[in-house]
């Protein structure tokens, strides 16, 4: 969703300072996570590879169904307006995966004056076998240089060609709000191979490459409303130039139909009966006392989901 900032006083970061660029990108990442404290079934999927149990499976299915409903609600909204609906759904339903968080991060960067920003899919390429592996993960990328006359990938259902995958340079920054970090691409790729729990993990001999996505159409009124509605996402206070009539229209667009809220209640009731919640909580309490750092991290996350979801 492309949003163009026309305010001349908006924040426009320079890449002359390595530390400042990363610190600012990381601040954006934290702002998005704070504004949208969502839970992710793909995070639970990744954790499930480390420590699988029936309680986690129930919780994963509940979050997955709510994320699916969120995407259904936002599906038919014109792309110039999708951010308004998506932000509202993430706020209300407290769910979202890497796709939703990347879209929120992309829009937030644009609201703060960043220019060369786009979302990308991650792929792993094996130089020996020539195999291309989809890592099933979306990130937001700053300062990715596209080759002249670059042809974007045609369809999500078609095979990705090696020529479509791009190698970042030493100024490219990955903002991965799902994994809660921002760093230069080379450092980020090391994290994906070692510390970040992706469901499809790249091996040491594979190269991680980026498949850039097309930018969505811009709409200045959408930008103005997002600045008005979510001021905490801004690095600098910027007055939103928007009328009361437009605010009313956008608020109406962001409203979630009661039938969908009832569906969410049903999903939670179906998967998370009181007995199930007690079982999950008991397992979480037991595992949190484990000495294994990964297991502690997993069940700390599960307890957080139980408390808020």
Describe, in plain words, how this protein is organized in 3D.
The longest helix is centred in the first third of the chain and has 22 residues, at 54-75. By secondary structure, the chain is of the alpha+beta class. It has 11 helices and 5 strands. Strands 4-3-2-1-5 form a 5-stranded antiparallel sheet, with helices on both faces. It has a domain at 13-38 and 115-218. It has helices spanning 18-35, 41-48, 54-75, 82-93, 98-111, 185-194, 220-229, 244-254, 258-271, 274-288, 293-308, and strands spanning 117-125, 132-142, 173-176, 181-184, 207-212.
Describe the SSE topology:
Layout: H1 18-35, H2 41-48, H3 54-75, H4 82-93, H5 98-111, E1 117-125, E2 132-142, E3 173-176, E4 181-184, H6 185-194, E5 207-212, H7 220-229, H8 244-254, H9 258-271, H10 274-288, H11 293-308
Antiparallel strand pairs: 1-2, 1-5, 2-3, 3-4
Helix pairs in contact: 1-5, 2-3, 3-4, 3-9, 3-10, 4-5, 4-8, 10-11
> What is the H/E order?
HHHHHEEEEHEHHHHH
Uncertain regions spanning at least 5 consecutive residues: 1-17
Overall geometric form: globular
Question: Count of DSSP E strands?
Answer: 5
* CA(first)-CA(last) distance: 27 Å
Mean pLDDT: 84
Radius of gyration: 20 Å
Question: Strand fraction band?
Answer: 5-15%
Strand order of the largest sheet: 4-3-2-1-5
What structural class results from the helix and strand content?
A: alpha+beta
Count of separate DSSP helical elements: 11
Q: Helical residue percent?
A: 40-55%
- Please describe the biggest sheet, giving its number of strands, its sense, and whether it closes into a barrel: 5 strands, antiparallel
